[in-house]
Amino acid sequence: MTVWPDVKLNLGLRVLRKRPDGYHELETLFVPCDAFHDELTVTPADETTIEISNCDWDPQQDLTIKAWRLLKADFPDLPCVKILLKKNSPVGAGLGGGSADAAYMLKALNTMFSLGLSDGALAQYASRLGSDCPFFVYDRPMLGTGRGEILEPFDIDLSGYEIRVAVPDGVHVSTKEAYAGITPSEEGESVRELLKLPATLWKGRLVNGFEASVFPQHPEIAALKDKFYSEGAIYSSMTGSGSAVFGIFVKTI
Predict the structure, then answer these.
(1) Average pLDDT of 112-132?
(2) Residue (of 69, 67, 72) closest to 3 by Cα position
(3) Ordered DSSP codes for 105-126
(4) pTM beyond 0.90
(5) Where does the pLDDT of residue 55 fall: very low under 50, low under 70, confident under 90, or very high at 90 and above?
(6) Measured in whole angstroms, how far is the alpha carbon of residue 77 from the centre of its chain?
(7) CA distance 92 to 133
(8) 3-state DSSP call for residue 167?
(9) Which long-range contacts (CB under 8 A, 24 or more apart) does 150-158 make?
(10) Annotated catalytic residue within 38, 62, 132, 139
């Protein structure tokens, strides 16, 4: 089976407070984005192996094989598989490409081997692999709270807009770096309420809280946001903890 994991964008991202478990309480809207797609092929095999192209990390630490191990622990009869992953989505860009790979792996195994897991059950497994992994089980607009794993369907129609995504060359922002410079705050307007406004009113109000700390350290990212606005975007923002930036444009006929 071959699947093509996509990526996500964050419309608004508020970091509200630090939790006793060390994570932060968040509020954000996850939306799927087809700007990039990885290629994930899973086939039955005599032993479980993994090959990854276009990346330089240890394949045995990849979230796709961790997803197989996670299900194998609860489903001892789960067959071995050969995993082929071609990375096309940028790494360390806040687009969630690795999380998407993990979620799509869970879904592929569930389908291939008739495990009978519901989306809710798959999301529970996905949450053990990463905070934004559960979103990709559903892969539709979802309001994320908690550490991002508590999801609620959110009705938003972006069909009348063109979304462009840009990633600055050679700029990677680690999650640790992003959180190190942020000041959590519960003040300000909620993402949920702001998204009820027309998109033309989001600029300056629907914010990604990481921009305040990331932009001074990486002015190339801020420059991309300015560039989108200079090109006519009605809204632009960094996604996740960076470094990718997206711009929303009204479609022209």
Answers:
(1) 96
(2) 67
(3) HHHHHHHHTT----HHHHHHHH
(4) yes
(5) confident
(6) 31
(7) 15
(8) coil
(9) 151/30, 151/123, 154/29, 154/192, 154/195, 156/11, 156/29, 156/31, 156/195, 158/31, 158/199, 158/248
(10) 132
Beta strand pairing call for 81-86 and 49-53 = parallel
Question: What angle, 0 to 180 degrees and rounded to 10, lies between the N-to-C axes of helices 97-112 and 119-127?
Answer: 140
Residue with tokens 């109000």: 205
pLDDT for 87 beyond 80: yes
What per-residue confidence (pLDDT) applies to 165?
A: 98
The letter for the amino acid at 124 is: Q
Confirm whether 66 is a catalytic residue: no
**Paired tokens of 83:** 């995993």
166-to-10, 20, 227, 239 alpha-carbon distances in Å = 14, 35, 10, 10
- What's the rounded Cα separation, in Å, for the pair 100 and 35? 13
- Amino acid letter, residue 212: A
253/235 Cα distance (integer angstroms) = 19
The whole-number pLDDT of residue 7 equals: 98
User: 192-249: per-residue pLDDT in tens?
Assistant: 999 999 999 999 999 999 999 999 999 999 999 999 999 999 999 999 998 999 999 9
pLDDT of the residue at 124: 97
Q: Which of 8, 87, 107, 225 is catalytic?
A: 8
Using an 8 Å Cβ cutoff, are 31 and 7 in contact? no
Query: Is 132 considered catalytic here?
Result: yes
